[in-house]
Amino acid sequence: MRISTQMMYQQNMRGITDSQSKWLGYGEQMSTGKRVNRPSDDPIAASQAVVLSQAQSQNSQYALARTFATQKVSLEESVLSQVTTAIQSAQDKIVYANNGSLSDTDRASVATDLQGIRDQLVNLANSTDGNGRYIFAGFKTDTAPFDQTDGTYKGGNTAITQQVDSARDMQISHTGSDVFDKFTSNAKPEPAGSTQETNLFKILDTAIAALNTPVAGDQAKTDALVASIDKANRGLSNSLDNVLTVRADLGTKLNELDKLDALGDDRALGQTQQMSDLVDVDWNSAISSYTMQQAALQASYKAFSDMQGMSLFQLNK
């Protein structure tokens, strides 16, 4: 095989070009801190990195969803804490109103206090989240769930849910009917022949009306008043039990969200490490390869320069 000057030149130029490309590649790795800067650097690692990046993005979205859920649940718990205090205050007023020594005027004063508590509870039931969305309205967040006058529920019947992890959909709110118009399964029953009222506001309305009705020594009216107060006492006790049950559920959800956050943080840490193993540069290897490739490139330059002095190159001029 005849070796021409052109062939020797092309071979040396190809060697220099390859060495220079590798040297620049190692330089880019050290500059970016990435071993894989484009798919061609490592097709398998690049494809795995794309899949892992999607998983990281999904994990971040779930973390954001949990933040929203935690805020939503915490806000409801805060409101229900105030509701609990208000119901307990109403119970105290009802117990006091059952004192037989009170006059009609005294009972009317108690009724005024209960009216204030009732109005407070309606306002709490119609609380918003700070963005104008009603907390206890279900998906009808733009409508006040309870009528100020008669306490009728007008909100949605479906509670809001949020996907807080890949396999977990969580109910992050309760409808107003579940909180203020419902009793637990072990609620105190009414006497035979008496209808049970579950709406908290109507329970208070009935008690207020009874306390505002003068008795004036009439035994029948007194008996009716006592019966009304006893019913209101049972109704408030049942309402309080229901609110406490809802609060227990909220506490359980907050605890679960904390655990899911911890799991998500661990998952994110693992994904970051996997991504680093796939695409990040091995500094010891990169620096060593960069130095050796630089030496090889310099040697290639020297060899090419020396070859220009050989006779074959001289004769070709």
UniProtKB/TrEMBL annotation:
<dbReference type="InterPro" id="IPR001029">
    <property type="entry name" value="Flagellin_N"/>
</dbReference>
<dbReference type="Pfam" id="PF00669">
    <property type="entry name" value="Flagellin_N"/>
</dbReference>
<keyword id="KW-0964">Secreted</keyword>
<dbReference type="InterPro" id="IPR013384">
    <property type="entry name" value="Flagell_FlgL"/>
</dbReference>
<comment type="similarity">
    <text>Belongs to the bacterial flagellin family.</text>
</comment>
<protein>
    <submittedName>
        <fullName>Flagellar hook-filament junction protein FlgL</fullName>
    </submittedName>
</protein>
<feature type="domain" description="Flagellin N-terminal">
    <location>
        <begin position="3"/>
        <end position="141"/>
    </location>
</feature>
<keyword id="KW-0969">Cilium</keyword>
<keyword id="KW-0975">Bacterial flagellum</keyword>
<dbReference type="InterPro" id="IPR001492">
    <property type="entry name" value="Flagellin"/>
</dbReference>
<keyword id="KW-0966">Cell projection</keyword>
<keyword id="KW-0282">Flagellum</keyword>
